[in-house]
């Protein structure tokens, strides 16, 4: 059941995170939104409140472990507990390896991998102690299939896949009743391409997205489906994307 669950979303200021926040709030969840851009978080929180939802927000940088600890504590203080964390913040500054955009490689590793690890470490003690909880993370179809220009992004998303599968296995072994779900979106209409600086890569990506992208609301629906299952049922993985995208 979604109603009354406390759900913390990272990368909530736009795209998939924002769409998921709106949908879950409309189904009665209590939302805690985290991202760096406060103006975007405030606007979204106002929209959710105006629609009758329950929401709070805090600016965070997922690359900072303390920031993740702080927002988990904020959620618990505000709503008396935490049921779901959606580790969704991500960047995709794709480029060929030969361009040696090493700063961008490092930011992807910091946000897409360390950000997820920081979120897991912030929430795991709480979920283990309460013997319940749901960790959801956004990987990508790039975490399932390699493509030129996507070496580092793909590597970070493969890492998310591995981390989440091992979290699922260890949680089951420890009988901690923690559910996990990893989502693998294909082309979704969000702000993600704004982080791509390599112009040739951007041109190719835009051409693909112009042809195939679907709304982030579709991803939000499958996340809601996973949360809505009974506590003994774990929807651990799903891909979601445009029907005709090859
Ligand atoms: P957006 O660019 O719209 O959203 C990315 C979100 O991540 C923003 O809310 C941004 O907020 C947040 N973010 C980035 N860096 C940080 C940081 N250091 N600390 C906190 N928050 C951060 O794109 P999407 O909605 O598409 O991206 C969401 C996830 O979906 C990502 O993990 C992405 O890799 C994945 N994905 C997207 C696909 C697509 O086609 N759109 C396909 C496959 C996967 P802010 O800038 O305010 O901090």
TrEMBL record:
Enzyme class of the recorded protein, top EC level: oxidoreductase
Keywords, ordered alphabetically: Oxidoreductase
Key word RNA-binding present: no
Domain Ketoreductase: residue ranges: 5-181
A Pfam match: adh_short
GO terms, molecular function: oxidoreductase activity
EC number: 1.-.-.-
Superkingdom classification of source: Bacteria
Keyword Transmembrane: no
InterPro entries named among the record's database cross-references: KR_dom, NAD(P)-bd_dom_sf, Sc_DH/Rdtase_CS, SDR_fam
Family to which the UniProt record says this protein belongs: Belongs to the short-chain dehydrogenases/reductases (SDR) family.
UniProt-listed PANTHER family: DEHYDROGENASE/REDUCTASE SDR FAMILY MEMBER 11, DEHYDROGENASE_REDUCTASE SDR FAMILY MEMBER 11
Protein name per Swiss-Prot or TrEMBL: SDR family oxidoreductase
Annotated organism of origin: Levilactobacillus tongjiangensis
């Amino acid at each position: 059941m979604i109603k009354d669950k406390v759900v913390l979303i990272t990368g909530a200021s736009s795209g998939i995170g924002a769409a998921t926040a709106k949908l879950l709030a409309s189904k009665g969840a209590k939302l805690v939104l985290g991202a760096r851009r406060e103006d975007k978080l405030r606007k979204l929180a106002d929209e959710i409140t105006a629609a009758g939802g329950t929401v709070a927000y805090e600016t965070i940088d997922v690359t900072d472990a303390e920031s993740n600890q702080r927002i988990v504590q904020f959620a618990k203080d505000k709503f008396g507990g935490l049921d779901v964390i959606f580790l969704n913040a991500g960047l995709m500054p794709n480029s060929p390896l030969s361009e040696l955009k090493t700063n961008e490689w490092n930011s992807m590793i910091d946000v897409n991998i360390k950000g997820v690890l920081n979120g897991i470490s912030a929430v795991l003690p709480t979920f283990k102690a309460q013997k319940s909880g749901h960790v959801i993370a956004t990987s990508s179809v790039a975490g399932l299939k390699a493509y030129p220009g996507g070496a580092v992004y793909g590597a970070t998303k493969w890492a998310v896949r591995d981390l989440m599968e091992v979290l699922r296995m260890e949680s089951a072994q420890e009988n901690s009743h923690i559910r996990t779900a990893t989502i693998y979106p294909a082309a979704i209409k969000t702000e993600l391409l704004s982080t791509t600086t390599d112009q040739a890569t951007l041109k190719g990506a835009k051409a693909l997205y112009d042809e195939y992208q679907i709304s982030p609301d579709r991803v939000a629906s499958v996340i809601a489906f996973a949360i809505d299952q009974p506590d003994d049922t774990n929807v651990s993985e799903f891909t979601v994307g445009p029907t005709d995208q090859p």
